[in-house]
Amino acid sequence: MNFRFLFVLVTVAVSLSKQDEQEKMFIPSLEIDPQSARILLNSNDFESGSADPWYDSSPSTVHWVVEDFTMPSEVNYPPPIPSSGTKYLRATRDAQLSPGFVILRTVEFMALPGDRITFKFWIRSKYTFGNTLELILAIGDTETTLLTLSSYSTSVNLEWRQASTLIPVPEPTVLTLAFYASCGGNAEDAIAIDDIVLEPSDEITTTGLTTVTSTTTVKPNCAPYFQGNTKVPCWALGNKCYCFTNSNSDNWEQADAFCRTGNMTLLSVETEEEEKLIYNHWQVHPELKSEKYWTSGKFPQKGYNRTYEWATIEPFQRFTYTNWQSGKPGHSDFGYCVYFFMDFDFESGFYWVDYLCNSFYLEYICESV
Ligand SMILES: [Ca+2]
Ligand SMILES: [Ca+2]
Hints:
The protein is mainly beta. The chain folds into 2 domains: 197 residues, Sandwich (Jelly Rolls); 144 residues, Mannose-Binding Protein A, Chain A (Roll). The chain is 8% helix and 35% strand. The chain has 3 helices and 22 strands. The longest helix has 12 residues. The protein is elongated and about 75 Å long. The structure holds calcium ion (2 copies). The site of one calcium ion has 4 residues, from loops.
């Protein structure tokens, strides 16, 4: 059912801080309560021509405008073809292509633990990093940056990309989301957004507001965060739960111990299918900021015919599938562990590297047992 037409509702003021004075004129005239606003955020592909429930609150001459691919405002540099439909939001400049700051906001809505925001974006600039695009979470006057996508701003970016992030709230919270962007004054400079979707966690439904989706795959029990730690988000992929650290930088022993505190173990890559699942997931989650993650792979201290094994639950299993970097492993000695490398530029893909277990500065992935 499309709930967008419930927009007729209701009351509740959108709060404005003084510095938002300039933006007042752009606040939508229909104001709604946070519970109803949540449903409006389910999905917007902009094909209706309306930006609701998102609204432009840009302080400069650049504004978010719904554009049709068949009638681009800047004909010399049209966006890449949308994967579906023809409309999207574009940071649209005046006839002189004056640069400026652009803001796209939601009304206040009720976010629930496990909520995820996913969207497509295209950002391009004459000079690398010339344009910026960030997704911001605002609770009252406190703002947190959820995603920074400015690194995709290059002259050669001709792709719609997908980004996705959890909304890190430990309990139901009224908040707003905003895209902050700056668009330069060169002809090549462009920013566009499409298909913004708010997905609730599978485990959480709001009575009377959300329809429960039925699913044929059996999903593992997977909380949105590792032990409630909002810095370690988790996802159900295939039939396992995986949690990714983002700022721990522990050595292998510490990483192994960390996962075990949540009744998990470090990642074991038993099949190519599992490996691709992890890599594909990592690719569309730019908030996962590391290229190197410890796995449970380790060279044993004792035993006959020693070889690398997955050090999870004893008896440890030898590798049956491998994806070593060319020339690796360089060491077959106790004291070496295995990290999973995924290339930020997506050029060299992903592979495994043997590395001193007592090295720091690596992140890691925990896997359900
Ligand atoms: Ca669209
Ligand atoms: Ca596994």
